[in-house]
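Protein in question quoted for reference:
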Amino acid sequence: MMNQKKPHIAIIVALDEQNGIGRRGELLCHLPADLKHFKELTTGHTIIMGRKTYQSLPKGALPNRTNIVITSDKEDNYPGCVVVRSVDEALARCKNEDTVFIIGGGQLYRSTLDLAEILYLTRIHHTFDDADTFFPEIDLNKWELIQQQTYQTDEKHQYNYSFHTCIKK
């Protein structure tokens, strides 16, 4: 019997200075470069999300990716997605993947942060006072920043932001 490899688990998230990630079921702001970065990293891979994250997607399942939705909702109306009931079940579906991406939301991030091996963080250099969904606190003793790119506001980006790549120590 061949050993099946385990995928690398990556978390990808955009968060503000207070770890806010959303408000009223939507992203905190529109950063086209972040959306492009997200697409470049996740295309061709499996993405795992919770029900609320799926419902926030404007056009449903994201193209050119295997979309897995974790939900206890009995209504399985998630076109273009694989529906599972737990993180373990989601990861069991990804045994032959190189990397899978956890894309939100807050509850899923909290339950998978300890499983993750890499973090792709978009740090928005602003605090959104009305954020109502948050990323868990990142223990800097457990993570090493290996790459950082910082960008200034421009005609398409209202806030300064940085892309950070962190690996588990």
Observations:
- The mean pLDDT is 95.
- DSSP finds four helices and eleven strands in the chain.
- Residues 69 and 83 are 5 Å apart (CA to CA).
